[in-house]
Design goal:
Blueprint lengths: L1 H17 L3 E5 L5 E4 L1 H7 L3 H4 L5 H5 L3 H15 L8 E6 L5 E13 L2 E10 L1 H16 L3 E5 L5 E4 L1 H7 L3 H4 L5 H5 L3 H18 L5 E6 L5 E13 L2 E10 L1 H40 L5 H32 L5 H8 L1
Antiparallel strand pairs: 1-2, 1-5, 3-4, 4-5, 6-7, 6-10, 8-9, 9-10
Length: 335
């Protein structure tokens, strides 16, 4: 019988030692009774330095104020139950590295003695990846919103706040933002019908331009793209909106400039054309001398050179004034 018990103890010790999570068994006074290999790897503190002592927590939480806050949090939890779940704290390893640990505990009785099994999962990499993703989302220069199955806003990034004027707190968990961005009932209805038609055919839409009304009552033109994702069986819509208001204004200004330039050039070009046609007729009839022909051509060449110079100045003025002109137009104007 004793051999059976010893074998079981060896098996349990082997399981504890080879677990991929940090496992510490604590005695009645908080002293460490068991400290597995993962605990050594994560914290840097060896079993031989830990067993029988409760000083490891001061090493793992060297900052007195932070250690006090963690202790108070644990005490609050233990007032209502004798264990805690998914308590997240940041420890300091022996090498001075910070690690994020997710703690779970369970109280047991072992050979008549109370024991607390503490399981710590190192989620540092997960938290860093989450923080990295959130940083990308928040620092993207496009409006990014993630919608749940019922249209509830789950993600609303900083660009969305800046463009619309509506803060994260005003939007998350709600689905009424669209009524605010499209306050005109008829316009909102027309957009909804257009989106429904597109989605029925493609399940997403690209470069859909709409005009929203911001919180401060300013109109902005947004180019929308959407994609549908599925996470754990739940579908989410990712809506990406690019503010193209300034680009559209630049394009309108460009068209106005080009129209104005055309009107201004029409008359001098017409004069050159008429002069050359008349000169050709006179030459044909032998009514102009060589010197007179040369004088006419030189005069019209000067006029053409002046027109070319005016066009070049006009192009430069457009490019310098309108930085939002699309690249294709800009290359044409600068060419």
């Amino acid at each position: 019988m004793e051999n059976t018990h010893n074998n079981q103890s060896c098996i349990e010790a082997g399981i504890l030692d080879n677990a991929l999570v940090m496992i510490a068994v604590l005695g009645e006074r908080g002293q460490v009774v068991s400290w597995n290999h993962a605990a050594e790897t994560i914290t840097g503190y060896l079993q031989k330095d830990i067993i029988g002592s409760n000083s490891v927590w001061k090493h793992l939480y060297p900052d007195r104020d932070y250690r006090k806050s963690v202790t108070e949090k644990i005490a609050d939890i233990l007032k209502t139950k004798n264990y805690f779940e998914d308590l997240e704290t940041t420890i300091r390893t022996r090498s001075g590295e910070s690690r994020t640990i997710l703690w779970n505990t369970k109280t047991i009785t072992d050979h008549g003695l109370p024991r607390v099994i503490t399981v710590g999962m190192d989620v540092t990499t997960d938290r860093q990846e989450t923080a990295f993703r959130e940083s990308i989302i928040d620092n993207a220069y496009v409006l990014l919103a993630v919608l749940g199955p019922k249209g509830t806003i789950l993600v609303w990034n900083k660009a969305a706040e800046m463009i619309t004027g509506y803060s994260n707190g005003e939007v998350i968990g709600k689905n009424d933002i669209w009524k605010k961005l499209y306050p005109d009932t008829e316009y909102r209805r027309s957009i909804t019908l257009k989106i429904a038609k597109i989605i029925s055919e493609h399940n997403y839409f690209e470069n859909l331009e709409t005009t929203i009304v911001t919180k401060n009552n300013e109109k902005r033109i947004i180019s929308w793209n959407t994609r549908q994702t599925r996470t754990r069986g739940i579908y989410h819509e990712i809506a990406i909106g690019r503010d193209i208001t300034e680009q559209r204004k630049a394009e309108e200004a460009l068209i106005a400039y080009m129209t104005e330039m055309t009107m201004r050039l029409k008359q001098p070009v017409g004069i050159i054309n008429n002069t050359l046609m008349e000169s050709a007729r006179l030459v044909k009839e032998g009514m102009l001398t060589t010197d007179e022909i040369i004088m006419v051509l030189q005069g019209q060449a000067r006029n053409a050179a002046q027109i070319e110079s005016n066009i070049r100045e006009f192009q430069t003025a457009i490019v310098e004034k309108n930085l939002s002109i699309p690249e294709a137009y800009r290359k044409f104007l600068e060419g």
